[in-house]
Design goal:
Elements lengths: L23 H21 L4 E4 L3 E5 L10 E5 L6 H12 L6 E6 L4 H10 L2 E2 L5 E6 L12 E5 L3 H14 L7 H7 L11 E8 L2 E11 L2 E9 L8 H15 L4 E5 L5 H7 L2 E11 L3
Parallel strand pairs: 3-4, 10-11
Antiparallel strand pairs: 1-2, 2-3, 4-12, 5-12, 6-11, 6-12, 7-8, 8-9, 9-10
Helix pairs in contact: 2-3
């Protein structure tokens, strides 16, 4: 495998090889990849704010949408006391957004979740979303007739990627403003350690996915298919491309957080669940 390109975000995080990872080490490295991804989007998003000391990450990319990827607190060091996490989050988000999410990793944050709920934070989901991992490249798959995959390398591709994401995630009530903040520049989807793809049919963008490499892992993000084109294998097609792009960037494993709809697909592709994330929505009343 070729080494991953220099990534200004991953350089802030401890480096580990997947071959040396077992259990907790893999989970911690995957958490760091998630942090690298959030920091990457914050770096390229106009008006975003972030605070990161290597132990706790606070990121705000939208003044209206309280979702965890746009206004989130992620604890990377379990020794950081829950009260410190919550007090720093309240201070950071006070003038940023009326709501925010505290990430709860099932493998590390039960104490933080217990404290947040006791403080009055709301649990957004009892089951959360699975953290899944795969340790090998995949067959590229065969596009349906008339469908082509094109890597995003310019602003036209970025714009198409954005439009697919807006359409694909509208059932999750993700507002356009939040997507535009995250995908505001070409660097969001085409940068060292970052690659993205759009599937087109007759020139029309119909599906998209991207990967962010750090810490010898790659994380899949923003897998989506527009309404009216689902059930044709397009989401799987772009996911396979993104997985293989992650390995091409030097990753020794690829991770993702699966949606309820995507989980059966990823299991069928060979991903395995290794943990779960939940979120506590704040601030408390």
């Amino acid at each position: 495998m070729t080494p991953a390109p220099t990534n200004p975000i991953s350089n802030m995080l401890p480096q580990t090889t997947f071959s040396d990872m077992h259990g907790d080490e893999l989970l911690a490295a995957a958490d760091r990849n998630l942090a690298a991804t959030l920091l990457h989007f914050a770096r390229v998003s106009p008006g975003a704010a972030s605070e990161f000391d290597g132990r706790l990450l606070l990121v705000s990319m939208s003044r209206a949408w309280p979702g965890p990827y746009h206004n989130g607190a992620l604890r990377l060091d379990p020794s950081v006391a829950p009260d410190e996490v919550l007090s720093r989050a309240r201070a950071f988000f006070a003038d940023r957004c009326p709501g925010y999410c505290v990430w709860i990793a099932a493998h590390a944050d039960t104490d933080l979740e217990k404290r947040a709920l006791a403080e009055g934070y709301a649990q957004t989901s009892a089951t959360g979303t699975p953290r899944m991992v795969i340790g090998h490249p995949l067959d590229a798959g065969r596009p349906p007739e008339g469908v082509v995959l094109e890597e995003v390398v310019d602003d036209s591709g970025r714009s198409d990627f954005l439009e697919v994401t807006v359409d694909a995630y509208r059932e999750s009530y993700l507002p356009r403003e939040a997507v535009e903040a995250e995908l505001a520049t070409v660097d969001a989807v085409c940068a060292p350690g970052v690659r993205a793809v759009v599937a087109r049919e007759g020139g029309r963008p119909v599906a998209a996915a991207m990967t962010v490499a750090s810490d010898r892992l790659a994380g899949i993000q923003n897998v989506g298919t527009i309404f009216g084109e689902r059930g044709r294998g397009l989401g799987e097609l772009v996911t396979r491309w993104a997985v293989n792009a992650g390995f091409e960037l030097g990753a020794e494993a690829v991770v993702l957080e699966a949606s309820e709809q995507g989980e059966p697909l990823y299991l069928r592709m060979g991903f395995e669940e290794v943990s779960r994330y939940r979120w506590c929505l704040g601030p408390p009343p």
